[in-house]
Each structure stands twice: as C-alpha cells, then as structure tokens.
Amino acid sequence: MRKKKIILLITILSVIFSSLLFYDKYFSTSGFEKITNADRFIVWIVTIIFVVYYIKLDSDPQLAPLALSSDKEGNKKNNNKPDVSFKNVAGLEEIKEELKETIDFINNSHKYTKMGAKIPKGILFHGPPGTGKTLLAKAVAGETNSTFLYASGSEFVEKYVGVGAKRVRSMFEKAKKDAPSIIFIDEIDAIGARRNLDSNNEKDQTLNQLLSEMDGFNTSETVVVIGATNRLDLLDEALLRPGRFDRHIYVGNPNIKARKKILEVHTKNKPLHNGVSIEDIANKTHGLSGAQLANIANEAAIIAVRKNKSKVDCEDFNQAIERVLAGLEIKNPSILLKEKKTVSIHEAGHALVSKILKTDMVQKISIVPRGQALGYVLKFPEEERYLLTEKELMGKITGLLAGRAAEQVIFNEITTGAKDDLTKATQIAQEMVCSYGMSTLGNISIDEYYIKNNYDIIRREMKKIIDKCFENALKIVEDNKIILFHISDLLMKQETITSEELDKIFQEYKTDLDYAT
Q1: Out of 347, 413, 478, 501, which one is annotated catalytic?
Q2: pLDDT tens across 126-152, in order?
Q3: Is residue 132 a known part of a binding site?
Q4: Residue 93 annotated in active site
Q5: Which of 179, 378, 438, 480 sits at 20 to 30 Å (Cα–Cα) from 238?
Q6: Annotation-wise, does 130 bind a ligand?
Q7: Where are the chain's structural domains?
Q8: 36 CB contacts (<8 Å, ≥6 apart)?
C-alpha cells in the first residue's frame, strides 16, 4: 500500500513537470531557457513509463489467476515449525506410543533403512470432533522438528477446473523441498469422498492428484501425510489402502484417567480453590471430548471472574458443566405456573425411573430453563463402561421416556416437552435393531441400504422396543407416585435438586423400591 502511494506521488509530480515543459515548448516562460529538446523528451518518456506502471499496479487481477497465485502465499504462511510436543497432549497415551515409531523413523531414518523398512506414507486419524486430532498432528511435527503444512479439505474444492489439483501439487512440492515435513489435511473427506457416477469431475481430479502424489514419494524424501476425518465411512477405498494411508488410528473420547489428565493440563494456569477435585470433575464429565473439557475449564474461570472471586471453586465448575451440557441459563423466563408444574413432573419422572433402574447416577435435577430446554436432569454412569447389556439399553430408553410417562400418569395427557427424549430413545432403539442384533430380526447387522428399502420392518421392531420401555416407565411411575410428587414439590419450591437431596428423598421410601433391585 505504501509503495503504491509513493508511485502515485512520483507519477503526479512527473505529469505536472511534463505539462510545464510542454507549455514552455510553445509559450516560452522564464526559468526553462537552459532545458533542451532532448531533456524534454527524456522527461516525457519517464512520465509515460510511470503512468503506465501505476495503471498496471492499480488494475485488479482476474479471478482465476488470483485463486492460483494464492497458493504460494498460503504455503509461506503454512511453512512453520510448531512448538507443540507430546507434553502438550494429555490423555492419549496409547496413540502417542504408536506415533513414537513414526517419529523415530523421521529422526533416525538410517536405522530403518538398514533393515529395509519404509516409513509409513500416511496416517489417518478418525473419530468424533474435538478429540485432539489436529493437536496430535502438530505434536508429531514438533517432536521431529519438521515443517508443518496445514490444509483443510475444503481449500482444494474450487469451481475452476484444475485449481484443486494444482494446489495439491504445489503443497507436495513444498513439502518435498522442505523435508522432513508433515502435511496435515483436516476434514479430508471433503476431497477424499468415495467416487461414483454422480460425483463432481473437479473433485475427482483433485482426489486423483492426491492419490498419485501419495504414491509418488521417493524413499529418500521424509514426508508424512496425516489426514483427519469424522466420517471414515465416506472415504474412497483407494485412499485407505496400504501404501497411501498405511495406519488408521481411532481417536475417541477420553476415559476417566484421560479426562483427569486433560483437565490438569487446562487448569494448571488457573488458581483453583483447595476444595476443587479434578477427579470429581472427571467423573462428572463422562462422554465429553477434550475440546469440551477445555471449554469447561475456561467457562469455570470466566464464571469466577464474573463473580469477583480470586480462585475457581467447585460451584464454578458445576455451573460450567451445566453451561456446556445444557446451554445458557435464561435469567428471566416467562413460564406459566401450569407449565412449570408440568416441567417439574416431567423431570421428576426422569429422575425417579433413572434412580430406580440404576441406569445412570443422577447428578442434578433442575427446572431452570437453559437453551431450548425448560428443565433437565444431569446424569452420568457410576463407573466407566465399554459394554452395555440389552437390559441396560432398555433401561436407558425407559429413563428417557419416563418424563412423558409421568405426564401421562399425572395429567392424563402428553406435551411437546419430550422431543429431545424421543430422538435419543429412537436412536438407541435403531442401534439395538440395526447394529447390535437385539430384536426379533435376530443376530444381524443391517446396513443403510437395507434400512432405506425395508424401513417398515425395522420401524415395527423399533416400535416394539420403545412401546415395551414406555409401558415399563408407566408402571414404575404409577407405583411410585408419592416419590414423584415429593421430587416435583421440592423442585417447585427450590428449582434444583442435588444428588444428595435426591438420596435423602429415596431413603424415606426404601420399602417401595424392593421390586427394582
């Protein structure tokens, strides 16, 4: 921008001076007697050059060349060596152990070449979002002091034919030039999706270029491609074969030990109250990803600042968990008393059935509106589980339908408040029928094509499961109306009930729970 202003100033001065010389040529003026015709000619030529140069500088380039010219600029920006190492990655010990072999190959390649071993050309991270796939890729680059080239899959998708393929070529050329290097392609399913007759020609060209580049590495070039995706099932088979992405590593949500380590990393720079237990927070955050845990730690610190506290305490973390899981609290809700009573019965139904069936540990019940929900029940399992029985899955569906069952028993009608519960219950029922073989269809796994063409059969099986669970929920609520009203009345009085307060309520009615054990 500064260069353009300087050229403009020089051009203006040249034009003014040339104009004066032109005027003096035909109308003699004092002060220009010593200037010859040759001098005038030189000044005019220089002025024309500056005018033409400024016009070219000011003109806008065409769209296609602009898209192509951005490749080099992008590569310059991406050409960095991250300062992230495995010390910054918490809770992924098994994956880090697996990646150390690749790191050792890059750092000490002569050991492997002596044995005739070849470096893995590609590593594919797949799993749910927010689990640390990008962080792992940066850590590999940091551990090997390699150049880290980052690209998103969507950056290669263009409306101009050949642009995507060119960007792939230029990125790999840059990686080979700056080897050892790590190419990280995030959301690789944007360009690596399975090819078919209906697919886009430009996208296919980009994928073909990526396949040929990954195949064309020389053994002397230390370049590793790392891809990340949430949808492994969408990727083309040619991309997944050995020789391209040799290793597929699943990066899932952390277990309790991993959650503890992740929380320790994200709270080490925060002043914590002595009463804060990282282990308790890890217990309360079952099923959350690393990104969500980082968000909880950050939200807790923000809440503490909002309340003018000098340290982050347990209450701040509890509110942060609710904020992340249930949404933003609505401060001044305009809810009718009748609706509030309905919500209290609904949430009391969830808590009652979940407590009796012991499917999950009820952490908190609330009828304070958050996000789009008028009330909620925070639950988490008492212990880390990897396998669930058919009975336990039925119990989870029963707990989800218990809110609607309570409305049916108490008010003899149902409301729209069970929308989210029905969605989750239907999803579990579908997995039981299609994935787990827990229906009268037998021990089979059903793919998407069969579901699409035989939906009526599958729907009937799902309905059997859901109807059976709903009947069970109705029975439990009917048999324990006293406890239901006790929970509901306490909710109406103080709006929230903790797990300890719920335990006290149930201790008063021990004899009524014998059938549930």
Answers
A1: 347
A2: 988 888 888 888 888 888 887 888 888
A3: yes
A4: no
A5: 179
A6: yes
A7: 2-59, 71-250, 256-326, 337-516
A8: none
